[in-house]
Fold these 4 entries.
Entry 1:
Amino acid sequence: MTNLQTIWFVLIFVLLAGYAILDGFDLGVGVLHLFARDERDRRTALQAIGPVWDGNEVWLLTAGGALFAAFPAVYATVFSGFYLALVLLLVALIGRAIAVEFRSKVESPAWRRVWDLIFAVGSLLVTLLLGVALGNILRGVPVNAGGEYTGAFLQLLNPYAVLIGVLAIATFTWHGAIYLAGKADGPMRERLMRLAAPEGILALVLYMAGVATSYAFSPFLFEGSPLVWILVAVVVGGIVLALALVRRGRFGGALAASSLTLGAMIAQTGAALFPRLVPSITDLAYSLTAANASSTEPTLWAMLIIALVGMPLVLAYTIWAHWVFRGKVVISDEGY
């Protein structure tokens, strides 16, 4: 495997980590929307993510585009094998985006309740589907010697993948609760502080269950670099640190710790899979790797040049947007 292929393997996971950290709290706030007590709480939640949610989703689009350009065989296999799940994911993403923009267009409680439900259910479905997809990759996908997906849709809903999907819901909801607590004030902030503790503990328990199950059913994930176990420790430490900081009301630090946790989870996934991108549950020798599934070297070089120009711009815009809209949410007539 060449250095260029390794670089692109790492870049794919950097983009996925950026998406998990940034859109993770958006999706978590969406799931929490199901339990909002009143209109003020719902508007606070929406205005907390309103200026940044669409920019955060750019990271997912960039990761998908990078996967298509750098590892087209992986893109073809995953998108054909997970086709129905990806269609549901797309519908959920579109639904939650429309809901954010449409809920305030008509002054009707019934109208807003419908769009609030679509927003919350869409956020829940997106999170679950992303987690289930990741779970299937970690478990191994039925791929033959020609790199073709040979399974059925219902095979994707196996217990291990569902466990990772539930872990994704718990982790993103916890991440979202921390973010929203830093944006809210008064009783809503107090409720979110109380919610963050059990959510964090649940995320930790499910994560450890996921690690144990992975070790039992996909031992190849732990046969490579010792970095995997180091990152497991970072994840556990990040959750514990975030819980301690929330108790002290230090939401900025807690959000940094929960972001570290999510980044470490994605990094652990990359370290465990390397150099495989799609392990084959049929036979590991059939796996799609960074070596056998990559584009040509000129394509990788061209994409790397584009990435070196584009990624700093995306990162700079993201930092700028979050800086401009920092601070507490102030409810106004112009908001969502």
Entry 2:
Amino acid sequence: MSALYEAMMVDCIIMNKIRVEDELGGWKTTWEDGPTFKAAILKDNTIEARMAEKEGFKEVYTVTVNREVPLEYHDAFRRAEDGQVFRVTSNIKDNKSPMFSGINFGQCTAERWIPE
């Protein structure tokens, strides 16, 4: 039997940042699709989060993945179904289930993000 969070997982793609020289001698950033993974992405709808959004802060999401998914602070990923991009805002290594556990998950927070 799978856990509820597993039933809520959707396809996502890690976005790799690539810097290339431009025609004017400077640099530009491009993004390339990386590995795919599954994630349950839930918006924080607490009173505090909603008040912060009204004050101009970004929306906060909790992202749940299998503990083997290599998300790190400030990684960017795209939700495949709608193209929404998120940037990781916490360290997933702090919120992983132990290897001996029968529950296989890691959690981090993320924000909606528009790549440069």
Entry 3:
Amino acid sequence: MKRKITLILAIVFLLAAVTGCDSKPPEGETAPTTKKADASEALFSKEDFPRLDGSTANIPMALLMTRRLLGISEEEAELAVSFSTTPNAYMNLIYGSADLLLVYEADGPTKDSIRESGVELEYYPIGRDALVFIANEGNPVASLTVKQLQDIYQGIITSWGELGGEDKEIVAYQRAPGSGSQALITKLVMGDLPLMEAPTELYPAEMGGLIDALAGYNNTKNALGYSVYYYVSNMYMKPGLRLMAVGGVTPSNETIADGSYPFTNEFFAVMRKDEPEGGNVRRLLAWILSEDGKQAITDSGYVGM
């Protein structure tokens, strides 16, 4: 009996050795793989790779760049990339805890803090995004004009009935002061017009918090808010919400690229001006501005320059 069991085990091990020599998986299956970077070889080591920071909406771009430049897996890149939001990223760069930013434009107070610090920065536009407005898909109002948005956020228009919708109050959410999207509504929509004061609960601190608030508001057809296009299209959106057209133009990669959607703006790679020539930060910037870097931006789903 023992000899029979030994013989069976020998046959099993022999078959395993023979099939193991064939690298092809069984028909209809794929071999398990760890997703590595697309680049043929790493251009940086983990030790000399500059410390990245930036805006929440730029995280996917940073992840793909990190994968390609270090030749690491998705999981490793996620551990390596930590972004602290637009205003905090600028301060981290100023005070030396970040080396290079992938970031949206700073708001006025953050720009004031940068000037007061005396640290000079270099800005390189690397892509385009847009400020977009979000409402409930059951709201019959599908498009707003620039003037209507200005009047809503000044508190002049207060009911959807004034815009052809139901006679219900417009619950207009804003982002927290200092956020990238708050800087964009001031620059692209309001200009010198004052934003109305809103109750504290209408200022979600996080980008995802605004989306959650819009989706969860008791009278969902009433709510209106804003964010950046890439974030709501690729990173975080809730069922039951949709993007508003502006002047009849719906935001998309195509309308952002050709400028027909009105609220477009560039985002940037930013570093300190005193970074030495030939150093790792300038090497990284040169790659971002190269064809390989531009390809990484578009491969991440952004609108390139």
Entry 4:
Amino acid sequence: MITGTVDRDRVPVVTLPVAGGVWSAAIDTGFNGDLELPESMRSLVSARYHGEAKSELAGGQIVLEDLYRVEFPFDGQTISADATFAPTKQILIGTNLLQKYHLDIHFPKRTVLLERVA
């Protein structure tokens, strides 16, 4: 189980321990991939080039990005996931990574709960 908050911009956010640090991660229900990671995290997650990915952004713009297979700590285990890297400080968690999770966002209480389901 992972808990978090809804920040002042109404973004559901959790914190994740990665390589001895704590990173902020936004849950992006409009992103159907696994992860977008900060460029500074590339060496921490054993990134291996996996190919190119075509993504359609919210405004309809199509972009090509390099896709990497990473070993990523998530909910107490290390998972293999597909990731892109961006010049940002925050992780984006996409819906593909959450296929085995129940996501509860309570905006009035500003709480987030990710719970693995059987």
